[in-house]
Amino acid sequence: MKKQVLQCLENVYEAKDLIELNDMLGLKTAEELRELQEVLEELVNNYIVFKTKKDKYLLLKNCPGLKIGKYSANKKGFGFVILNKEDDLYIREEDSNGAIQDDIVLAEVTKKGVKPEGKIIRIIKRDLNNLVGEIMETKKGLSIKLDDEKIDLEINLNKETLKNCVPGHKVLIHLTKKISNKRYCADVIKILGHKDDPGVDILSIAYKYQIDPDFGADVERELEDIPTEVDKASLLNRRDLTNEVIFTIDGSHTKDIDDAISLKRDGENYILGVHIADVSNYVKENTALGDKAYERGTSNYLANTVIPMLPHKLSNGICSLNEGALRLTMSCVMTINKQGKVIDYDIFESYIKSAKKMTYEAVNDILMRDIIAPGYEPFADTLKEMNELAHILRKEKMSRGYIDFDLDEPEIIQDEQGRAIDIVRVEREDGEKLIEDFMIAANETVASHIYNMDLPFIYRVHGKPNTEKIEDFTNLLKILGYQLQTKVYDLTPITMQHILKELDDKPEFTILSSMLLRSMKKAEYSKENIGHFGLASKAYTHFTSPIRRFPDLTVHRLLKKYLVEKDFSMHTIDYLNTSLVQIAEHSSEREVAAQQAERDVADMKMAEYMESHIGEIYDAIIDSVTNYGFYVELPNLVEGLVHVNSLKGDYYEYVPDLLSLIGKSTKKTYRIGDKLRVRCVSANKETALIDFEVVEEQENGSQE
């Protein structure tokens, strides 16, 4: 009967009661009525059907004012309900109804338009089996204080699983029994270490996002059969590129090297080789290794801690394109003309031997400052020619609308004990841009090739921004006193380029470009190719990092299936049409989790760093304003709150239309982009919060 009920409700947009539905279905007996009631309750419990306060029923998808999604919490108090194919729903702190990170929630839309808002009505599902906390000593014995203070639960720990725990241990627990709504029994399933041990703070955040450093016994057993060196049998039917001048460029601490490059000339044309580690040769489908790679989705880079997608024997060993080591690769060799167009290409299985492991620092010295480090002399001319090609490729991308936000990122420097001792702004130079340009060229070439074959594939897609959101951004600029000449009615990548160019000379450029970026949609993985707006690309994929990302590994498997095995059977096509949807969705989810974990670690480490700098005065810029204060950003990208109660000399009111706090008597205004001097008054590593106060003008003057 479930199928009939769903069909009956499909085109119903006014809630119906039980008897009305009974009549619509043409049911005749009391037994059928009872079955209908049971089916409806099941559909209600599964949040497919919504039951009103008047006991009427309607398909949830036909309720425009109700949405189901995953809650994403922000440390500033507010959050968002993440919705599929729709704009995320902004949730004020007072409307979160106790929701915590990753809760599946039912929300009511309270404000439509460019910035839809809502309130959470109900928490549908909460994963409470991945909780991390600190063991505390109490009068009743050992208890746990959860890291996430928003989870208001009383937890009784199983004494048997507490045997090896001491106060200060950070632990992972598993709920075993529900006693009441807010009271549970739980087992300690893993001791992460003492809270003061190096790295335990980062591990605690990793486990919160289901990022587990342990691979498990099944993977360890399979690793025993993974070779440490490439065997000769693996070289059969592969193209030998060991005599080519091929090398890698990475960060100085990188150990999982999955891309190498080469360059030759053919008259006026460039022949660019991008050679990617052939991880698919070792990580097969339907194995413990393959399943674990899928489960993780991505490697995680949390400050100086790396939790890899693949075990080190693979990621740093047989798969890593280490200097002087014979390695299996998938190569994309492109012939590129002077205009930056790929006029010919070949994608094939190969094997290489990297001539040198280069670092960005040394390469940038050659390209930017003409300083050649020892050992780089034989490659300097090739690097300069590569940079020439990179500039041509970038110019071609810019001409079609490539959007380069080029936002700096913070690098957290830690001592041997894992404590943050410095935070520096990292700027990209030509070396980093060169690798980015070459990888984009290879990714586009591979994606276009399979797209033109009309075969199932996994793409990296980026949808066109919502015009209203960009108009909302331009209205914000008007509030700040800037009038854009660029018209946004015909939204193209070129339009976004022009907006960025107009903002380039503004003192608030960093803040404004970041806000513009946030107004755009997020890139994700998809079986359907809708193009990549930010890259102005008609077809794009991720092919170049199979050690670090599962979608890239999937792309390699597909290339082998199509180009090497020539498997185009309907059985294969049907299977891929189904499985790639799931792989894309899961990979996108794990990417978001990795980004959230990275953000949380950065916030925590910034607060740890500032704990040693309380009382110090800094230049700052206001990057957001709320009804309870405003957030400022320091030159090293540390962010913290200036609470409205700390503002002296007046009573300040929040004026949303002006995105400002304005003094009631003095009319003194604090708004986005304002530069000021602030003093750090508190910082707390455990809460990842930093507080500042404004340094008064006369005091500010005395600091000069």
Provide a brief overview of the structure:
With 704 residues, the protein is an alpha+beta fold.
Topology record:
Layout: H1 2-9, E1 16-17, H2 18-25, H3 30-45, E2 49-51, E3 56-59, E4 66-73, E5 79-82, E6 89-91, E7 104-111, E8 117-125, E9 131-138, E10 141-146, E11 154-157, E12 169-180, E13 183-194, H4 200-208, H5 217-223, E14 239-240, E15 248-250, E16 259-266, E17 269-277, H6 288-296, E18 300-302, E19 305-307, H7 312-318, E20 326-336, E21 342-353, E22 357-359, H8 360-369, H9 380-400, E23 409-414, E24 420-426, H10 430-453, E25 459-461, H11 467-479, H12 493-503, H13 509-518, E26 524-526, H14 550-564, H15 570-610, E27 617-626, E28 629-633, E29 639-643, E30 652-655, E31 660-663, E32 669-671, E33 675-684, E34 689-694, H16 697-702
Parallel strand pairs: 6-8, 11-13, 14-21, 15-22, 29-34
Antiparallel strand pairs: 1-3, 2-3, 4-5, 4-7, 5-6, 7-8, 9-10, 9-12, 12-13, 16-17, 17-20, 18-19, 20-21, 23-24, 25-26, 27-28, 27-33, 28-29, 30-31, 31-32, 33-34
Helix pairs in contact: 9-10
Q: Could you describe the 3D structure shown?
A:
With 704 residues, the chain is α+β, with helices and mostly antiparallel strands. 31% of the residues lie in helices and 29% in strands. It contains 16 helices and 34 strands. The strands form ten sheets. A five-stranded mixed beta barrel has the order 4-5-6-8-7. A five-stranded mixed β-sheet has the order 10-9-12-13-11. Strands 14-21-20-17-16 form a five-stranded mixed β-sheet. Helix 9 crosses helix 10. The longest helix is centred in the last third of the chain and has 41 residues, at 570-610. Mean pLDDT is 92; it is low at 700-704.
